[in-house]
UniProtKB/TrEMBL annotation:
Family annotation (PANTHER family): INTEGRAL MEMBRANE PROTEIN, INTEGRAL MEMBRANE PROTEIN-RELATED
Statement: the UniProt record of this protein carries the keyword Nucleotide-binding: no
Pfam families for the chain: QueT
Swiss-Prot/TrEMBL keywords: Membrane, Transmembrane, Transmembrane helix
Keyword Protein biosynthesis set for record: no
Protein name in the entry: QueT transporter family protein
């Protein structure tokens, strides 16, 4: 039984990673820049809500972000985007999983704020320090870039993530489980 749960965990993580990567890369191909600029509406970020339902989403979202951001290397965003994006995804997914039981009308509102918080801070710093500030930190630029990133994240989670949570709740998906026996 333990081996079966391990295989299911890895399978879930791989599926989440592939969905995230494919959605992001496809979005960037169809609407260039819409998933890789400071003000973005990265559709794949709706999948972050899966961290509320399974711990397998933590490595899945992190790996998916790394794979998706490989395409940003060729778009001029560099190696930094892979590192900072994956770090933001990892921290957000862990925080979402830890906050999975904090609910407002059965919606994990505190958890849904975590991608905006972590992406805003981490990606905002990345944009300010590496792309705008030429390796210099500027508080005003950082706050502006952080805000722009956070607004995009909040929009995705409000428009796509919240309805996904409602759907998963209606379907009876249990929180924090890898498999239902």
């Amino acid at each position: 039984m333990i081996k079966r749960k391990h295989v299911i965990y890895l399978t879930q993580a791989a599926m989440i990673a592939s969905m995230y990567a494919v959605l992001t890369i496809a979005q960037n191909l169809l609407i260039p820049g819409s998933a890789s600029t400071a003000v973005q509406f990265r559709v794949a970020e709706a999948l972050t809500v899966l961290a509320v339902y399974t711990p397998a989403a933590i490595p899945g979202l992190t790996l998916g972000c790394v794979i998706a951001n490989i395409s940003s290397v060729t778009a001029g965003l560099g190696f930094y985007d892979m590192i900072f994006g994956a770090t933001a995804s990892l921290f957000a997914a862990v925080a979402m999983y830890l906050l999975r039981n904090a609910r407002v009308k059965n919606i994990p509102v505190p958890a849904l704020l975590m991608p905006a918080l972590f992406n805003g801070l981490i990606i905002g710093f990345e944009i300010d320090f590496f792309f705008i500030g030429s390796l210099h930190f500027n508080t005003v630029d950082f706050l502006l870039q952080s805000g722009l990133v956070a607004v995009g994240e909040l929009a995705v989670l409000l428009v796509l993530g919240t309805p996904l949570c409602v759907l998963l709740n209606k379907k009876g998906v249990q929180m924090g489980v890898v498999i239902k026996d």
